[in-house]
Amino acid sequence: MSGMVTMQAMLKIDVISVQPKMFAGFLTESIVARAVAKGACEVNIVDLRDFGEGRWRKVDDKPYGGGPGMLMKCGPWFGAVESRVGSGDRAPGTRVVMTSPSGRKFTQRDAEELSRESHLVFMCGHYEGFDARIDTLATDAFSVGDFVMTGGELAAAAMVDSIVRLLPGVLGGGPAATASESFGRDGLLEAPQYTKPPEFRGMKVPEVLLSGDHSRIEAWRKSEARRLTERERPDLLR
Ligand SMILES: C[S@@+](CC[C@H](N)C(=O)[O-])C[C@H]1O[C@@H](n2cnc3c(N)ncnc32)[C@H](O)[C@@H]1O
Fold first, then answer.
1. Whose alpha carbon is nearest atom 20 of ligand 1?
2. Can you tell me which atom of ligand 1 is nearest the CA of 125?
3. What is the pLDDT of residues 160-178, one digit of tens each?
4. 126 C-beta neighbours (distance < 10 Å), count
5. Which residue from 12, 103, 204, 231 lies 20 to 30 Å from 132 (Cα-Cα)?
6. Whose CA is nearest to atom 25 of ligand 1?
7. Average pLDDT estimate for 36-44
């Protein structure tokens, strides 16, 4: 098959959620669908309720000590994660990622690191979050930003997307396509980009980009990337 990936074994991704239907479009309409079709990865959505307790497949309960809302219970989560990775030490190349607003902020470096593993399991929380003992299942806890969402599904989808597009053969243009992007090799934001027409409503494409002079274009992009990063994300320069 043309475009078949040969450089790296297929990455296996499991996503555990109480809302598995949220991933329907994500799996058929995104870069992930292309990566699966190319044989770069396999993605399984696991319904946490299959590991729920009792007749009603219960996965949550009231917090000890009082407080609003419900917490996710240990039993279903231990059952679901262990069904994917076993109950002993994690095999090399396996990472179990908990989605959590109190996790470390997920970055491009993490996406790069996870794209080199062989098996990733994403844990999507819900309600008021996880019983704290569930943390022991995870090798990593990641937040996608300083805000609180209803569940971990969108966080997991964002992370999976950013990982899968780095797998060999998934994006046209290869590693060069991602190295020159924001947070790429130089750690800066990407310089502004333009396409046709050369002038739109009085706004002109910078002359240098039309010059055909590749060394001038490269120098311009470098200085614009730095200027943009200083303005929008000075923290990246520290
Ligand atoms: C309503 S949140 C729980 C918030 C928790 N009570 C707190 O204050 O930190 C439910 C679930 O959504 C997911 N979630 C919410 N915001 C997130 C974020 N910024 N990054 C990653 N996961 C998030 C997590 O899986 C979390 O367990």
1. 143
2. 25
3. 999 999 999 999 877 777 8
4. 21
5. 12
6. 125
7. 97
CA proximity to 72, closest of 62, 81, 82, 59 = 59
* C-alpha span between 163 and 22 (Å, rounded): 19
Structural domains in the chain, CATH included, are: 11-164 (3.40.1280.10), 180-237 (1.10.1270.20)
Type of residue found at 176: A
Query: Which protein residues are within 6 Å of ligand 1, measured from CB?
Result: 99-102, 124-126, 128-130, 143-145, 147-152, 155
For atom 17 of ligand 1, the residue with the nearest CA is 101
| Dihedral angle sign, alpha carbons of residues 73, 75, 80, 86 | positive
Residue nearest to atom 12 of ligand 1 (CA): 151
Rounded Cα distance between 95 and 118, Å, is 9
Ligand 1 geometric centre to CA of 143 (Å) = 8
Q: Which residue in the block uniquely carries the two structure tokens 């704290």? A: 132
Share of the chain above pLDDT 90, in %: 91
* Structural tokens at position 141: 């806890």
Please state the pTM of the whole predicted model. Answer: 0.94
Question: Reduced to 3 states, what is the DSSP secondary structure of residue 230?
Answer: helix
Protein residue whose Cα sits closest to atom 18 of ligand 1: 101
Read off the amino acid at residue 238: R
Token pair recorded at residue 12: 């296996």
Identity of the amino acid at 161: D
pLDDT in tens, 183-195: 998 999 999 999 9
Which pLDDT score, from 0 to 100, does residue 40 have? 97
Point out the ligand 1 atom lying closest to the alpha carbon of residue 98.
Answer: 25
